[in-house]
């Protein structure tokens, strides 16, 4: 009976996750001639090409640096908003809803909203000029494009991850805070001695899930920058799309998918290992 109840979810998992993964692995060992359209076995040729391609090295570096900066920022901001919205403040439910709303907006729509705001004559530059700062190029600058994409992703993500951290805060027994208050501990002391230590597991989960999501960023790049300027936002998911569907090199694109899956598996395994060690 339990297996029958799980069958729809298991079938969805097989057809939407397992079979595409097996297909990607198989196609990563194939090559298709652009002249004849004939597909043949290529062995590790696609992987050898990837790992000797300076362009792929640049893609990996840009993706890793972006994630190393973005993910901790999202976790910290989500935790800060969660801490603020569990306080006894007026209209706290409304504030939570407003913070969560961007998480319900599709990624492509978020990209279009921020595309308008970050135009040379857009809202953000208008605000900067109001406070006496010069307008910025944002998406058209190699130095600012990745930051701009990160700003969009953060705006859309912090409300979603905030909910998980609020759930973690609700699990902390009130008796701990009451005992600390009786001992004369102030808000900051309670934060660092009780709240943050007991939030390690929820925040670690958010970091792991956020890492996976950030490695799969595609819509903002595809809609706004096409990987530019000068490859500054050419993250690995967009590079896969570019190689497989724009350059029509499906074998190399699928090899890059396999590399991405292995890279994510290693990163998530390390994070889970650290999570288990914290539990001990």
Give a description of the structure:
By secondary structure, the chain is mostly helical. It is built from 13 helices and two strands. It has helices spanning 2-27, 45-51, 54-85, 92-100, 107-117, 123-130, 145-170, 174-182, 187-198, 200-215, 219-225, 236-246, 250-279, and strands at residues 30-32, 39-41. The protein has a two-stranded antiparallel ribbon. Strand 1 (30-32) and strand 2 (39-41) form a beta hairpin. Helix 3 crosses helix 7 and helix 10 (200-215) runs antiparallel to helix 13. The chain is globular, with a radius of gyration of 23 Å.
Quick rundown:
This protein has 280 residues and is an all-alpha fold. The protein has helices spanning 2-27, 45-51, 54-85, 92-100, 107-117, 123-130, 145-170, 174-182, 187-198, 200-215, 219-225, 236-246, 250-279; strands at 30-32, 39-41.
Largest pleated sheet:
2 strands, antiparallel
Which descriptor suits the 3D outline? Answer: globular
Helix-strand pattern: HEEHHHHHHHHHHHH
Report strand order across the widest sheet. Answer: 1-2
Helix share bin: over 70%
Beginning-to-end CA distance, first to last residue: 37 Å
Task: Tell me the number of helical segments per DSSP (H or I, 4 or more residues long).
Answer: 13
Class by SSE composition: mainly alpha
Estimate the mean pLDDT confidence: 87
InterPro entries: ABC_transporter_permease, MetI-like, MetI-like_sf
Protein name: Sugar ABC transporter permease
Membrane topology: Multi-pass membrane protein
Subcellular location: Cell membrane
């Amino acid at each position: 009976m339990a297996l029958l109840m799980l069958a729809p979810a298991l079938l969805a998992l097989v057809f939407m996750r397992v079979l595409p993964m097996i297909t990607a692995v198989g196609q990563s060992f194939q090559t298709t001639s652009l002249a004849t359209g004939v597909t043949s076995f290529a062995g590790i040729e696609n992987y050898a090409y990837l790992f000797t391609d300076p362009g792929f090295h640049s893609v990996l570096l840009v993706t890793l640096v972006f994630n190393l900066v973005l993910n901790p920022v999202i976790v910290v901001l989500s935790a800060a908003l969660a801490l603020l919205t569990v306080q006894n403040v007026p209209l706290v439910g409304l504030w939570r809803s407003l913070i969560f709303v961007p998480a319900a907006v599709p990624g492509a729509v978020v990209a279009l909203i921020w595309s308008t705001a970050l135009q040379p004559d857009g809202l953000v530059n208008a605000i900067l000029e109001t406070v006496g700062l010069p307008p910025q190029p944002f998406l058209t600058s190699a130095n600012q494009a990745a930051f701009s994409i990160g700003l969009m992703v953060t705006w859309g993500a912090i409300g979603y991850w905030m909910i998980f951290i609020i759930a973690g805060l609700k699990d902390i027994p009130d008796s701990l805070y009451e005992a600390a208050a009786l001992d004369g501990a102030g808000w900051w002391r309670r934060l660092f001695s009780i709240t943050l230590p007991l939030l390690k597991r929820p925040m670690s989960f958010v970091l792991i899930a956020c890492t996976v999501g950030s490695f799969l960023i595609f819509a903002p790049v595809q809609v706004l920058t096409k990987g530019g300027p000068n490859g500054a936002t050419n993250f690995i998911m967009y590079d896969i799309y570019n190689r497989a569907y724009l350059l029509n090199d499906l074998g190399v694109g699928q090899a890059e998918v396999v590399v991405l899956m292995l890279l994510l598996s290693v990163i998530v395994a390390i994070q889970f290992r650290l999570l288990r060690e914290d539990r001990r």
